[in-house]
Design brief:
about 0% strand
């Protein structure tokens, strides 16, 4: 265990971690934490890209596509993006 530290975490009785056999629970929790950290990094990248699009005028409501058609899908995308900003 060189270079490792121990952390004690308490989970409620109904938590999914208890469905794993003893001896596998710690490994599963480590896997979940590593996955969550990776996802947090990906989401931060998405937030930064979206901000760059906004700053460059590339994401707006009511804009038109290359052929001049309306882009109502942008409205839906903007709503989706707002969910990540909360």
């Amino acid at each position: 265990m060189v270079g490792e530290k121990r952390l004690t975490i308490t989970f409620p009785a109904g938590h999914p971690v208890w469905s794993y056999p003893r001896g596998r629970q710690s490994a599963k929790v480590r896997e979940w934490v590593d996955t969550a950290l990776g996802l947090a990094e990906i989401l931060e990248g998405i937030r930064m890209e979206l901000q760059a699009l906004r700053n460059n005028g590339g994401l707006g409501v009511g804009s038109t596509g290359p052929s001049g058609e309306g882009t109502d899908h942008v409205d839906h995308f903007s709503e989706f993006v707002r969910a990540f900003e909360r």
